[in-house]
Design brief:
The protein has 241 residues and is of the alpha/beta class. The model has no long low-confidence stretch (mean pLDDT 94). α5 links the parallel β4 and β5. The protein is globular and about 50 Å long. The chain contains eight helices and eight strands; from the N terminus they run ααβαβαββαβααβαββ. The structure holds ligand GEK. The site of ligand GEK has 19 residues, from α3 and β2. Ligand GEK binds next to α3 and β2.
């Protein structure tokens, strides 16, 4: 795994973060050292796939990056399912295509889509994953996407939403932000790297509160909405239609 040192040297001007070739090279290391609980969430996605993916249905991994969730879900999916892995970064999709071709893993078909997740037509879905992706969509566009997912899902199907979250209470916000930065430091990021990455991503990744996410999912018609995981300022919600 190539180590992420993209922000290790001082930059005159920190440009906006992009999911380009440079990021693709280091992505597994970057996400593991930046998102507390990432490995635990992935492992639970596999467990949830075992429960919710139904024969003859579709599965959607929206903002799939290098397909970490897709590859785990595939282990659990019946052979007559189709997993749709969607990402609008061509660098991510091309690398995922290569990883799948080189892999000896077998399972149901995986269709790769280099596309904006707002443009996909979801039908006959039993399991939809938005693992750390909704946060990159403008907040005004989030309800429409969640409604599209709800409408395209079979009764009993599940949505897994993981996000970086924020807090209404300023003291809680400060504390959990500091704990997240401690996590990054403990995993080898310097203060310079933390601060330059923050500048690169702050206008792109817009966190909302857990309550806002839960309400939006309820409003879309999911009958059970269960926050099931939180580590500092990252949380994951399971919603069943
Ligand atoms: C994982 N789920 O490893 N349409 C499609 N893709 C998008 C859009 C969009 N509008 N906006 C962002 N992306 C993965 C991790 S990473 C999380 C997800 C992170 C894509 C973007 O190209 C990137 O690959 C992914 O969403 C977010 O389980 O880097 O913090």
């Amino acid at each position: 795994m190539t180590r992420d040192d993209i922000y290790s040297l001082p930059m005159n001007r920190v440009g906006e973060f992009q999911f380009d070739d440079q990021v693709v090279q280091v992505f597994p290391d970057m996400i593991a050292r930046s998102v507390p609980g990432y490995a635990s969430i992935l492992s639970m996605i596999e467990q949830l796939a075992g429960r919710f993916v139904r024969p003859g249905t579709t599965v959607w991994d929206l903002g799939c990056s290098l397909g970490a969730a897709t590859r785990l879900i595939r282990r659990q999916a019946p052979a007559d399912c189709v997993i749709h892995a969607v990402d609008n970064s061509s660098a991510m999709i091309e690398r995922l295509r290569t990883l799948l071709q080189e892999s000896s893993e077998v399972g149901c078909p995986v269709e790769l889509h280099e596309a904006d997740l707002r443009s996909v037509e979801i039908r006959n879905a039993s399991f939809v994953v938005l693992n750390l992706t909704l946060q990159f969509l403008h907040p005004d566009q989030r309800s429409q996407l969640i409604q599209t997912i709800a409408d395209g899902m079979e009764p009993g199907g599940a949505l897994l939403l993981s996000e970086k979250i924020c807090f209404a209470d300023p003291q809680q916000q400060d504390l959990l932000t500091n704990l997240h930065h401690d996590f990054k430091r403990a995993h080898g990021y310097s203060d310079l790297e933390i601060s330059q990455k923050r500048s690169a991503i702050e206008n792109l990744l817009i966190p909302e509160t857990l309550e806002t996410h839960v309400q939006r999912i309820r409003d879309a018609g999911f009958r059970t909405v269960a926050p099931w995981f939180q580590c500092f300022n990252f949380a994951s919600i399971l919603a069943v239609k």
